[in-house]
Amino acid sequence: MTPQSAFMVLAVVIPDRESRLRELLASMNHAPGRVDRENRLVPFARFPALHMARLVLLDDKTTGDVRAHGLEPREYPLYLAFLGDIDGAERDFLEELAAKAGEGLREIFSCCEGFSPEDDLVGWMWSHRSPPLANYVNTRGRTVRQVHQEAALYEALEKRMDGSPEEFAGLNPREVHSRLRKFSGEEQAAGRLTLSPEEPTPAGWWIRDKLHLVGMPLLMLLLSPILLLALPVYLIILRHREKTDPEVVPVYDQEAADHLSELEDHDVTNQFSAMGSLKPGLFRLLTTYAVLGVVDYAARHLVHAGRLGRIRTIHFARWVFVAGKERMIFCSNYDGSVESYMDDFINKTGFGLNASFSNGIGYPRTNWLIRDGCRAEGKYKEYLRRHTLPTQVWYKAYPGLTAVDLERNTRIRKGLDTTNLSREEALEWAKLL
After folding, report:
1. What whole-number distance in Å separates Cα of residue 154 and Cα of residue 409?
2. pLDDT of residue 420
3. 67-84 as b/e, with b when 16 or more CB fall inside 10 Å?
4. Residue 219: how many CA atoms within 13 Å on its side-chain side?
5. Which long-range contacts (CB under 8 A, 24 or more apart) does 400-405 make?
């Protein structure tokens, strides 16, 4: 299995170079929200391990919300974030980036503080990386190559059946499976289809993953006496904070909403970038660490492949602290409209949504961390839209394919790898076509 990794390079934009940087980012698109896959700066399509990527300016318009907690807003610099989701190791991909897009990246990063043309590009990006506090991958081990190959297989099978409907009309599911399995083998032998075998899992990654699987519960077990003693105090403080923390619910700027809409719905998949400040104090910071630690562990080891809770539309997602522990960015890639995305979270995993985001300033009031909150639908959607950032450049390696499509195509391929399906298995497999 080839594991997936996430990368994120974060750098401060030089104020005098902001307009130039925005021009460069705009030049990477055919139009707002429509990337040029072969643009001269970072030709994304030439990176076979890259699933999705974005360049986004972290221009946080909600820093003034801290006034509700009696604090004066801080002056933060503008950041550029370059992030993506890849097959294989992060360092290997950064080296490939430097080799294939070094000139373009140098032009982009020349607009950032601390970068000079003489710098080792890989070393500079590595020193400016921002690892996620929690990360979600829809299906670990499914590579970009696999996605493309299985999509080609699905199209070939569909074309074969559509081209001879009378041939398949009277066949039972097992006969359909047998005939299409033979067809697939012939297409592979002729070189018209390729279905590459799975690569072996890197030993180092496997060891680290198993240590994480065992280590986290073991650590919790060792700390359990302290945690049990602290739990009543924690719950009292939590409930007091929930009752007294101010709510921040100003009306969202319609002009900003219209600008975000221009960048959305150009494909079946959309990007989402949201940024905000944590509620002040050590209590909320530790709660954030604890909640996102659980989210990360569950995403890696517990949840069913292709499902974050009951949500099947998310390809990748991550939570990352931005330059300190006061602010955080959440980035995801999801299928459908932003409205359906928000509804999915509310209706299918509201408790997780509340736990993950209620430590942010302005989130609707929760009850024992996981209740209420997003159930105040209007306030929640207003909160989310206020914190959404326009993404200047966004790339997806397999446009037109949803997460459900990818799952279906994998199931079809696995079915063809099986020589003798039962009648029930063959019927379920045939329904996929």
Report:
1. 6
2. 84
3. eeeeeeeeebeebbbbbb
4. 10
5. 400/267, 400/268, 401/147, 401/151, 401/268, 401/269, 402/268, 402/269, 402/313, 402/335, 403/138, 403/306, 403/312, 403/313, 403/314, 403/315, 403/335, 404/312, 404/313, 404/335, 405/151
pLDDT digit string, tens, across residues 285-336 = 999 999 999 999 999 999 888 888 789 999 999 999 998 999 999 999 999 9
Confidence of residue 348 (pLDDT cuts 50, 70, 90): confident
| pTM assigned to the model | 0.95
Could you tell me if 233 and 365 are in contact, meaning their C-beta atoms sit under 8 angstroms apart? no
Half-sphere exposure of 28 (CA within 13 A, CB side): 25
> Which sign, positive or negative, has the C-alpha torsion 143, 35, 384, 128?
positive
Q: Where is 280: in which H helix or E strand?
A: none
| DSSP-H helix ranges across 245-362 | 254-262, 282-301, 338-357
Tokens of 189: 């032998």
pLDDT at 54: 98
Helices (H), 372-402: 377-387
Residues 17-55: tens digit of each pLDDT: 999 999 999 999 999 999 999 999 999 999 999 999 999
SS (H, E, C) 112-171: ECCCCCCCCHHHHHHHCECCCCEEEECCCCCCHHHHHHHHHHHHHHHHHHHHCHHHHHCC
Residue that has been written with the tokens 């974030």 in this structure: 81
Task: Read off the pLDDT of residues 176-217 as tens digits, 9 standing for 90 and up.
Answer: 899 999 999 999 999 999 999 999 999 999 999 999 999 999
Residue type, 266: H
88 — alpha (psi -120 to 50), left (phi > 0) or beta?
left
Q: For 217-242, what is the mean pLDDT?
A: 94
Given its phi and psi angles, is residue 387 left (phi above 0), alpha (psi -120 to 50 degrees) or beta?
alpha
Which of the four pLDDT bands, split at 50, 70 and 90, describes residue 255?
Answer: confident
The structure tokens listed for 406 are 């990818």
Could you give the CA distance from residue 362 to residue 384 in angstroms, rounded to a whole number?
A: 10
Give the up-direction half-sphere exposure of residue 123: CA atoms within 13 A in the CB hemisphere: 7
CA distance 47 to 52: 10
